[in-house]
Every structure is written in C-alpha cells, then in structure tokens.
Specification:
By secondary structure, the chain is mainly β. It has one helix and four strands.
Length: about 55
C-alpha cells in the first residue's frame, strides 16, 4: 500500500499537512489550499520505505 505524505514549506520551516492513501486527494492539493505555504512536496512511501518525492505545482 502506498502512503502519500504532503509537506508544506514556508520561510518558517516545514509542516506535514496530509498523510494518507488517497492518491487523487494528495496530488490535487495546491499551495493556495494552505495558509502561508510557499511550496508543497509529496513523499511516496511503500512498505515502510520512501520510493519517490517531488514538488507539487
């Protein structure tokens, strides 16, 4: 099972804003969906190991 972890970055640091198995929901998130968000990154985890990560929009 894949788990999608969405991280929000801004000048003050990083915050985990979503973690779950819903790929469509995770990949539809945008920086405008969150207050004070400069960039969103997704980490994809499978069987306890990170398999991919990249910036969303």
């Amino acid at each position: 099972m894949k788990i999608y972890v969405i991280l929000s970055f801004n000048e003050d640091g990083m915050e985990n804003v979503y973690a779950g198995t819903d790929e469509e929901k995770a990949l539809s998130l945008k920086p405008d969906d969150f207050d004070n968000c400069d960039a969103l990154f997704v980490e994809i985890w499978e069987d306890g190991e990170k398999t991919d990560d990249y910036r969303l929009e």
